[in-house]
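Blinded run. Sample ID left blank on purpose so nobody reads anything into the name before looking at the predicted structure. Input follows.
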Amino acid sequence: MNQLLPTIVRTLVAAATLSAAALTAHAQGVTGDVQAGQKKAEMCIGCHGIPGYQNSFPEIHKVPMISGQTAQYIVASLAAYKKGDRKHPSMRGIAGSLTEQDMADLGAFYASHANKTAPETPRTASTAAAALIEKGACASCHGANFSKPIDPSYPKIGGQHADYLFVALKAYTVEGNNVVGRSNGIMAGIAKQYSTAEMREIAKYLASVEGELKVVPQSRFR
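Blinded prediction complete.
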């Protein structure tokens, strides 16, 4: 059965990609503006614009690097917070105040920071990490070097903070909690295959990969 899991995951991913593509196409009806997004990002830079900034909820971890993500992923993640599919009180409060245009503008702004191309081939993973990543078929969604997602609404995860990746993976396994957790059938099925120690191993490896994500500090935080 374990040998069949990657195949099953890839099949589910293919179906999910069709759905995500439809949502992305709908979102593309709103065009983002970089300059407008820069002004609206004032609400974001207090966390995402400070190198090394840490969040204490639901446990201490660095906030994710979002500069260099695709515009579609920024929009998708904000929409998920607004809808409640991602349960984080601060982010849900912020996303709940945003219009589709606001999200598109923020997406355009953070995507405009992408000026680095990650290598196609990541560094060699340890045998343990490689087996865990293959088990989850991670590259099937997140692409080459985990920085070329097959759908632009999926995140780049190569080079992301290890502690954030660990917290995010765990969130997909949480059920019945009003303030912690993420609702995503594909990611929940993948994350629940792993022990806590295995999630840490995966996150540690993905963080070591040279990626396209970064923190772009605003002048007041330089």
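Unblinding after everyone has recorded impressions. Residues 14-26 have pLDDT under 50 and may be disordered.
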